[in-house]
Amino acid sequence: MARPPSARLANLDLNLLVALRELIRERNVTRAAARIGVSQPAASAALSRLRRHFDDELLARGRGGYVLTPLAMQLADQVEAVCAAAERLFATGTSFDPGSTRREFTLLMADYTVAVLGRRLAAELATRAPGVDLHVRLVREHFSTDAATIVRLVDGMIAPPVRGFDLPGVRSVELFTDRWVCVVDAANPHVGHTLSLDQLAAMRWVAPFQPDRGFPGAAPMSRQLTRFGIQPRIRVRVESYQAVPYFVAGTDHVALLQERLAGQVAQRLGLRVLPCPGEPEPIVEKFWWHADLDGDPAHRWFREALVALAAKP
Q1: Which partner from 52, 168, 299, 308 sits 20 to 30 angstroms from 64, CA to CA?
Q2: Which residues lie closer than 8 Å to 208 by C-beta, 6 or more apart?
Q3: Which residues, 6+ apart, have CB-to-CB distance to 42 below 8 Å?
Q4: Residue 96 burial (CB count, 10 A)
């Protein structure tokens, strides 16, 4: 007779979850031991038990150190989600003191949002909650298809409202707004003080999150160009917003970029920032979380801190 799931769970050493997470993160037994506050032999013993349980090496010797086995790579996201959920569960209480808490928050955001909020968020936590750890996972463009699952496994995600986020139990609050601009190399002789839609249609593009040669795509930039009726000639495709301006600099390429990000890099990279022709959609970045976290005072403090720092100029 099969044992019920609760009985199987009761027989597991849940400390192994923490060991598994740190071993996968560090790919080094000594560093993992330091992270969880145990001796190196204790961490080695935990790795041996995990290897027996999964019947897999998990960490395999490679050039210059250990590498993750395919199974370990498969387990990486799962153990992060499980540990984060467990930490939220046991950290829930009736009060919260940011100055003394030991808590990890897991936040999904695009690298563009990291450029806008990352420094301020790090300073806020260092000042007001020095015991808090932050795990930032970078958003990929396809993640909205799994929004219902993802939002349950993290403390929140920062993203614009898109189809698929309007789900039961999902909450949101606006953080900040932005707008699209065009960026070109400052020495580009073919571009004046403005750009027309006809010019944009004839130019060569740098495009973020464009998965293949097909068009249109689901990425925000692709949606804007579809809105303008432009099918761009894409010469460089990147999986990052912050990478875009580096492939415009020194070329005759053009790209759409968020104005806040463009303002940070334009002078340093020798770029000109021009108004976007047409009528691009405004950029609205929101913080999304699951209603299950409404009763957690630590989470309430975290999201209120995010809203407050995003409102600063």
Answers
A1: 52
A2: 219, 221, 237, 238, 239, 240, 241, 243, 244
A3: 33
A4: 18
List domains and CATH numbers for the chain.
10-78 (1.10.10.10), 92-176+285-310 (3.40.190.10), 180-281 (3.40.190.10)
Token pair 């209480």 is found at 93
Which residues make Cβ contacts (< 8 Å) with residue 297, sequence separation at least 6?
92, 93, 94, 95, 96
Task: Give the helix ranges, DSSP H, for 196-296.
Answer: 197-202, 220-228, 259-269
In this structure, the strands spanning 253-258 and 233-238 are unpaired
Q: Is 170 helix (H, G, I), strand (E, B) or coil?
A: strand
| DSSP letter assigned to residue 55 | T
Report the pLDDT value the prediction gives residue 204, as an integer from 0 to 100. 96
Q: How far is CA 48 from the centre of its chain?
A: 32
Which amino acid appears at position 248 of this protein? V
Neighbours of 146 (CB within 10 A): 11
The H or E element containing residue 107 is: strand 103-109
- What does the pLDDT look like over 224-282, one tens digit per residue? 888 888 888 999 999 999 999 999 999 999 999 999 999 999 999 999 999 999 889 99
What are the residue ranges in the chain where pLDDT is below 70? 1-11, 88-95, 140-148, 163-165, 211-218
Q: How many CA atoms lie within 13 A of 48 on its CB side?
A: 6
- Residues 43 and 53: their CA atoms lie apart, in Å, by 15
Angle, alpha carbons 99-105-111 (nearest 5°): 120
**Rounded Cα gap, residues 75 and 259, in angstroms:** 38
DSSP 242: T
